[in-house]
Specification:
Helix 2 (about 25-45) packs parallel to helix 10 (about 225-250). The protein is an all-alpha fold. It is globular. About 45% of the residues are buried. It contains 17 helices and 2 strands. The longest helix is centred in the C-terminal third of the chain and has 24 residues, at about 365-385.
């Protein structure tokens, strides 16, 4: 809204209002505005949110039990309100905003449900929203992508990709991003801090490199004409996420829940697709992807082996006072399980659970060490993606 007001009315009233047409100024206003809105109003409304019910098999979940959860509902609404003020009006942004609102809504309804929705139901909803979002970003036609290490025949070293190929690739990427961020939400500040790193990194890449025609040409990258506008969106979300982390720092006062983790996962995935290089997820979320993605791989393997008739029950020793002990393998049964199953059960996933339970890391140690690793890996992958082509 502000860019149009400045262009149509405000700049004629007072010259400095022309600054509201600057993408850099709008990034600053969006980030600061969303941060203040979230910081001021989140504590005033979180008592109306559902409360965490705890997870029987997750270490430390008793600390979260009873805390307000589903704060993603509020942070998303604050973000959308701020984005409405600072973003230019294009149908693409409005449709992406609708998809972000949809993924948040599915997560929030699951947060407040007294009956677990189940992994299949949530996975199919995530898949449907990921597909619709990819279709919006593809503009219902073929597109182009650029890859690390190789240059294509199109300007900027890009390759042409038909619509069906982009839909398959984009849907899979968005679905994974949604779920790896969701799986990483288990330690105070971890998912939010790592997602904040990713939002800032992708925002800077879209604004300074891909969105700048001269810089993109120098780096032999395809120019993203609206890269600066997407950067406004990402920095606005980063501001709100930073304010949320103020209250989510250990010991947390509020939790984002599925409403927040799914929202930020989809937004990071959108940023990667907009950049044109699907491998940039390694720049945006290297530790998030390793942390949550490893758990998804373990889950898929165990379910596949179970369908083959293998005994994949986790050992009884991992839980105290189980409600349904028949769902766990006794020590004798665990010793008779296949080596692959025993190997998979030896490591806890997401990785932050293994670090806390098996390595004895405290929650602050998990947070700081994961942040250090992500901060070290992000520029390394960025250089590999951009320069080694």
């Amino acid at each position: 809204m502000l860019p149009y007001l400045a262009q149509a009315f405000l700049s004629s009233l007072w010259g400095p209002f022309r600054l509201l047409e600057s993408r850099l100024v709008l990034m600053m206003l969006g980030s600061l505005g969303c941060c203040l809105l979230t910081w001021i109003f989140l504590p005033r409304f979180w008592d109306r949110l559902p409360h965490d019910k705890g997870k029987a098999f997750v270490k430390g979940s008793e600390k979260a039990k009873g805390k307000p959860t589903g704060a993603g509902l509020l942070t998303t609404l604050f973000f959308l309100l701020t984005a409405f003020l600072v973003m230019p009006f294009y149908g693409e942004y409005l449709l992406v905003g609708l998809m972000l609102l949809s993924i948040m809504a599915t997560g929030y309804l699951d947060d407040r449900s007294t009956v677990d929705w189940g992994q299949l139901k949530k996975g199919l909803l995530d898949l449907a929203i990921a597909f619709c979002t990819t279709l919006v970003l593809a503009h219902w036609q073929g597109t182009r992508i650029w890859l690390p290490l190789v240059k294509g025949p199109l300007p900027g070293g890009a390759f042409a990709l038909p619509l069906w190929g982009y839909l398959c690739l984009g849907t899979a990427l968005l679905w994974l991003m949604i779920n790896v961020v969701n799986c990483s939400d288990g330690v105070d500040g971890v998912a939010g801090s790592l997602a904040l790193h990713g939002l800032v990194a992708m925002g800077m890449l879209l604004y300074l490199c891909l969105g700048h025609e001269v810089v993109a040409e120098y780096l032999l990258l395809p120019h993203v004409a609206n890269g600066a506008s997407w950067a406004i969106l990402l920095f606005t979300a980063a501001g709100g996420l930073g304010a949320y982390l103020w209250y989510n720092a250990s010991p947390s006062q509020v939790l984002m829940g599925d409403a927040g983790s799914r929202f930020y996962g989809l937004l990071l995935g959108v940023a990667v697709l907009v950049s044109g290089n699907p491998f940039l997820f390694l720049v945006a979320t290297p530790i998030l992807f390793a942390n949550g993605g490893a758990g998804l791989v373990k889950l898929i393997l165990l379910r596949t082996l179970k369908k083959w008739g293998w005994d994949t029950r986790p050992p009884l020793s991992i839980v105290v006072n189980p409600v349904h002990p028949e769902n766990f393998a006794t020590p004798e049964e665990a010793r008779r399980q296949r080596p692959l199953v025993r190997f998979l059960h030896r490591y806890r996933f997401p990785i932050h659970d293994h670090c806390r339970k098996n390595l004895g890391w405290s929650d602050p140690q998990v947070l700081i060490r994961f942040m250090v690793l992500q901060s070290a890996l992000m520029p390394l992958f960025a250089v590999a993606m951009i320069k080694l082509r």
